[in-house]
């Protein structure tokens, strides 16, 4: 069960779509008050209003670009610093890009590092001390199955997710006995806008069984409530991750390269 201290909120980043939206819906079903963050102000406000009226608890929209300088600091000031303690932090906002790294462009690469890594670390770093002071806290970091191996044609994205997994697992151990649980959620292919945003042609994706965003969100929150360090929602993904550990380190990236090099990009950048 997800239970927060009285008066505390869940802060969900990337809540306007996909996995983050489903995490917000799932938390609303559990009557957890929430602060929802993403750039799309209208979508976010509409979702907040819907969940507020369905759950009867406070749900507020905070439109914000987490790639912007100082964004995480401003977000913590507007929540924890404004009398809205964060009992559950869901670091979900993130994006990927398919294609040769030489074509990704430095500007997009740095934006990806800012969102997928720097904003996640900064929010966690700023919110852990008040959680420690309260003796309670929950952090759900959305990584990916791409965290478990180097992925040619998604090289920086996979590396950001490897960072998230490593960082989350290390924190999980460090915080044992403090009342704070940190869980890394590692979805495989999930049916969201992620693939379109990453520049894939419509309908293109690695031919591997996918899950709905709702199933992934539920698996993440269940794993967090059970105090798990790592959650891989799809059993088939767990199987290849396990097998990948049994073969020489050079093999998995070669298989990934064969699969990912075939994917077609949409004509526009
Ligand atoms: N779908 C998959 O197959 C898959 C697999 C493994 C891991 N993941 C991970 O799951 C997480 C959620 O992805 P998704 O599949 O749900 O993708 P999605 O449908 O594209 O949702 C991404 C969310 O992040 C928000 N976001 C993007 N840039 C932002 C920024 N600069 N500031 C604040 N919010 C921002 C988006 O809202 P706005 O555009 O309104 O800002 C949206 O709410 C990501 O971390 C992704 O890497 C996805």
Please describe what this structure looks like.
- By secondary structure, this protein is of the alpha/beta class.
- It has one domain: NAD(P)-binding Rossmann-like Domain (Rossmann fold).
- Helix content is 46%, strand content 14%.
- The strands form two sheets. A seven-stranded parallel beta sheet has the order 3-2-1-4-5-6-9, with helices on both faces.
- β2, α2 and β3 form a beta-alpha-beta unit.
- The protein starts with 8 loop residues before the first strand and ends in a 9-residue tail after the last helix.
- The mean pLDDT is 96.
- Bound molecules: NADP nicotinamide-adenine-dinucleotide phosphate (NAP).
- The site of NADP nicotinamide-adenine-dinucleotide phosphate has 30 residues, from α1 and α7.
| Beta-strand residue percentage | 5-15%
Overall morphology: globular
CA-atom Rg in angstroms: 18 Å
CATH superfamily: NAD(P)-binding Rossmann-like Domain
Spatial strand order of the main sheet: 3-2-1-4-5-6-9
Please name the CATH topology: Rossmann fold
Structural class: alpha/beta
Low-confidence stretches: none
Whole-Å distance between the termini? 43 Å
Order of secondary-structure elements: EHEHEHEHHEHEEHEHEHH
Largest sheet: 7 strands, parallel
- What top-tier CATH class fits best? Alpha Beta
Mean pLDDT: 96
Any idea what the CATH architecture is?
A: 3-Layer(aba) Sandwich
Domains counted in the coordinates: how many? 1
- Helix proportion of residues, in percent? 40-55%
Q: Please, how many helices?
A: 10
